[in-house]
């Protein structure tokens, strides 16, 4: 069946992989990528689909209710996959309000626009909200996050994502909107903005710059290759049950320090440096304020009920990721120089 799907945040890291997957795999769907192009939005991520007949980009901020109404009208939006967000925990510590504005206020604006556009036929449409495992808080004594785990967000970022999840559920309950939510663990892979741990380290190792490890590097994250997350989003969109939540993760826990060492070792091999060269760059720095100790997702529900599984082992995914960054120096140069922000003006007219 033909659909006009609004994907928000499609110029970002995960959103761009979701957009590419949907544009390529579903030629009958029209994909409308809505993104404000903040510092995290990069249209260079989408070069391979930008001329596809079933792809449209609109530069809109989800804080702008009038523009959202216009997009729903003009493109006759049938479904939403909502990824637009402020996503970096460190930035949320220095500027929490920016996270409230986009992640909470922006999400409610989007819910309102969908509710208005879909009016009496709310049951024919789907609002899919993409969220994070951080809403569940921090694990200390073993165990995993289940879909039934109580929310306990600890950072301004996770508090804003938790609030947005609550609003999505409130709209489902109050207005009978068809909604679905997924909560995913840490992603890694191509097009990851180099403020986040893995791409930051790859870039710094390449340039022989210090590798800042917060605290003792003992914090644990559960890593999933970004294209496997995009496949999971495809699965939840098409097979998920409205009103449900699905946890997405790779059963792949790593201490930060072990990841950084693995990157050092692999980069030494690939760059032909003597073993141990890059490890000397590791620098233990002041810990992140309120740093969550451990995240670990139990992804049994999506595996059993919807048949999704990660396709890659971590070591394969890391190889692909490092190789991508080494082969795409232009992408990194444009991001680090800021040149990527000129792409819109030079390729799209207002
Ligand atoms: P990202 O920061 O790379 O991209 C976010 C995108 O949203 C950017 O293109 C940005 O321009 C856009 N955006 C920001 N504010 C906007 C606004 N007000 N209006 C319109 N567009 C706006 O983020 P990401 O890492 O790709 O994460 C995408 C989504 O997935 C987020 O909702 C995040 O919470 C969630 N998530 C991320 C991870 C992860 O490991 N990165 C894991 C689980 C869930
Ligand atoms: O769990 C899902 C979340 O994963 C997403 O919801 C977020 O959007 C995403 O940014 C990510 O959050 P983290 O805070 O876990 O990711 P980050 O890459 O910033 O940090 C990973 C770990 O590495 C974390 O324990 C902090 C640590 N770290 C991070 C940076 C940037 C360092 O030790 N040094 C660093 O320089």
From TrEMBL:
The keyword NAD applies. Its EC number is 4.2.1.46. It catalyses: dTDP-alpha-D-glucose = dTDP-4-dehydro-6-deoxy-alpha-D-glucose + H2O. Residues 6-320 form the NAD(P)-binding domain. Its cofactor is NAD(+). NCBIfam families: dTDP_gluc_dehyt. This is dTDP-glucose 4,6-dehydratase. It comes from Algoriphagus formosus. The lineage of its organism: Bacteria, Pseudomonadati, Bacteroidota, Cytophagia, Cytophagales.
């Amino acid at each position: 069946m033909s659909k006009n799907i609004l994907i928000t945040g499609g110029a970002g890291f995960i959103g761009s992989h979701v957009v590419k997957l949907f544009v390529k795999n579903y030629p009958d769907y029209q994909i409308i990528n809505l993104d404000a192009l903040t510092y995290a939005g990069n249209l260079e991520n989408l070069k391979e689909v930008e001329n596809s007949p079933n792809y449209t980009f609109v530069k809109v901020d989800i804080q702008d209710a009038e523009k959202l109404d216009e997009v729903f009208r003009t493109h006759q939006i049938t479904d939403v996959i909502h990824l637009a967000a402020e996503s970096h925990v460190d930035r949320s510590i220095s500027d929490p309000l920016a996270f409230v504005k986009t992640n909470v206020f922006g999400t409610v604006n989007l819910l309102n626009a969908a509710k208005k556009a879909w009016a009496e036929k709310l049951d024919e449409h789907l609002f899919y909200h993409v969220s994070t495992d951080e809403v569940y808080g921090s694990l200390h004594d073993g165990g995993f996050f289940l879909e039934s785990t109580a929310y306990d967000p600890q950072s301004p970022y996770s508090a804003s994502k938790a609030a947005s999840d609550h609003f999505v559920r409130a709209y489902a309950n109050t207005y009978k909107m068809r909604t679905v939510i997924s909560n995913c663990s840490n992603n890694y892979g191509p097009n990851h903005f180099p403020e986040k741990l893995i791409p930051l380290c790859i870039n710094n190792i390449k340039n022989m710059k210090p590798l800042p490890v917060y605290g003792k590097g003992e914090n644990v994250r559960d890593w999933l290759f970004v294209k496997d997350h995009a496949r999971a989003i495809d699965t939840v969109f098409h097979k998920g049950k409205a009103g449900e939540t699905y946890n997405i993760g790779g059963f792949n826990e790593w201490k930060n320090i072990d990841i950084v060492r693995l990157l050092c070792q692999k980069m030494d091999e690939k760059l032909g440096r003597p073993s141990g060269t890059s490890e000397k760059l590791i620098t233990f720095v002041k810990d992140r304020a309120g740093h969550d100790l451990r995240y670990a997702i139990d992804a049994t529900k999506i595996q059993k009920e919807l048949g999704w599984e990660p396709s890659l082992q971590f070591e394969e995914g890391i190889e692909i990721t490092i190789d991508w960054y080494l082969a795409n120096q232009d992408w990194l140069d444009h991001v680090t120089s800021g040149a990527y922000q000129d792409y819109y003006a030079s390729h799209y007219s207002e």
